[in-house]
């Protein structure tokens, strides 16, 4: 709560799917904005969240690009859920193009998103890049009790965190690579219900080294308990979890298909040119798993990079843009 913020409640409870809840919010929020637009100097929106036009549109995801991805859910699942996801993405792609045309300025959260916007016809001159920020207090280097987190002691542990119900995050490649790095354990954070990867881990003989922790709210503490972070997502506009890992002082492994890869320096992490290259991932994991001194050096470099991308710096970039827009 803050005396500088007025919260406007837009009810969407009771609608059965995220698609319908988003649709209802879009209509209801647009109605409120139309009634009160004259009271506002500037409207900042995210994507197609509302049917009302925004002056600044912050773009965290480009549905047109996701729809073309070879790992889109509709290409992986040939069932009603795959069809639902295709419809959800296709409609959002259409609606967000309309929202982008209405905005005076688009803020891309990465250069990857900027390119995706230009690919669908958005003029470069209307795009600013403001990368996501991280809470440097919540995510910071430290030591956590592995026993408390049900993680083994005395062994190197990599961490993977994300939605493990979809192939987009690429946990399957990580598990196949882990088979060839016998001294390394893997902690996996993500909702396990409906995930095929517990069965895959068992099939690959990784039951003793792949630790599925489920959905967790103590991710910052878990990051303090592990030695490195691995996240070679097949499609990721940014990947805030990478920045959180870096702020926690972890060396990171990712791929160029992840937007946040653009902030990673050679001193702080390893970026693979191909998210599907299992052998390159094996080599990267082996390098970090077998070199604790290198992990420490890279972890310190990661923290230094993260300190340049704080919530404060991101907020200041938005304040500067807003002040520029209202002049």
Keywords:
four-stranded parallel sheet; 327 residues; six-stranded parallel sheet
CATH architecture of the largest domain: 3-Layer(aba) Sandwich
Distance between the termini: 28 Å
Report the top-level CATH class of the largest domain. Answer: Alpha Beta
- In percent, how helical is the residue content? 40-55%
How do the strands and helices of this protein lay out in sequence?
Blueprint: H1 18-36, E1 44-46, E2 56-59, H2 63-68, H3 73-76, H4 80-102, E3 105-108, H5 111-119, E4 127-129, E5 157-161, H6 171-178, E6 185-189, H7 197-203, E7 210-214, H8 219-225, E8 228-231, H9 240-247, E9 252-255, E10 269-272, H10 278-289, H11 292-306, H12 311-326
Please tell me about this protein's structure.
The protein is an alpha/beta fold and 327 residues long. It has two domains: 18-133 and 311-326, Rossmann fold; 157-306, Glycogen Phosphorylase B (Rossmann fold), CATH 3.40.50.2000. The chain is 41% helix and 13% strand. Strand 6 (185-189), helix 7 and strand 7 form a beta-alpha-beta unit. Helix 6 crosses helix 10 (278-289) and helix 9 (240-247) crosses helix 11 (292-306). It starts with 17 loop residues before the first helix and ends with a helix.
